[in-house]
Amino acid sequence: MATEAFAPAKINLTLHVTGHRTDGYHLLDSLVVFADVGDTLTFTNGDDLSISVTGEHAAGVPTDNRNLVWKAAEAAGWTGHIDLNKALPHGGGIGGGSSDAAATLRVAADQGCHISPELALSLGADVPVCIRAQASRMREIGGLLTPVTLPQLPALLVNPGVEVPTGAVFSALTSRENPPMPEDIPTFKEPSDCADWLQGQRNDLEPPTMGLAPEVARVLDELAGSRNALLARMSGSGSTCFALYPSMKDAHFAAYEIGAAHPDWWCRAALLN
Q1: Mean pLDDT in consecutive groups of 10 residues from the start of the chain, 273 residues
Q2: Whether the model pTM is above 0.70
Q3: DSSP-derived pairing of the beta strands 266-272 and 241-244
């Protein structure tokens, strides 16, 4: 019998780089939410591990032990066939691979496999928060998670089809010691309240990414100039960017306008929470 799991896009509303460890890991302070768009995985138990990849962004996704889904299943001791329907652009800063791996670990745990926090973190800094898949403050190297209550945030996600290597982005950082977010995150009643507060926060990876991929600056300009946009920012290490809006009607209108002007860009209106 097959089991289906949803792997939502992860969006970094903020990403403050607050330090750098001697082992190479960066310390982060990030406000993370999840979208109602994402990949879908179908699991069928069996004696051997195998993966097939279908969907809009299947091209170039490995189907062997280079795939993070494979690594997650193998680490958890789960065997069988996994079909990954890839709706999210890979290498886009919205945790596609990490969310897929997290969905794999959730299914493996539901079927009796032991999943430790250390195992999840060993697969990537975003995997623990993707297992939780709810609004969270993510600190240290990704393992310190605190639940956060936020209003539902209407948004538009846009990816210009450019992959930006995360390592190159961190290497291009001019400062690795930056202020964290305020200790207390306020309670917000409306998306506009949240966006106003977010204006005072940062994604420290945005400037180096724009230096490596000028298309990101173009996307941010388009989002910031869209009707009723409350905030435009890059997610993660890019190249996916997002804008927040007062309503889903505004987000869909912006998706239509930007999508029509740039048919080669990936544009998705989404609700973040």
Answers
A1: 96 97 90 98 98 96 96 98 96 92 98 93 95 97 94 98 90 94 96 98 97 96 98 96 98 98 98 97
A2: yes
A3: unpaired
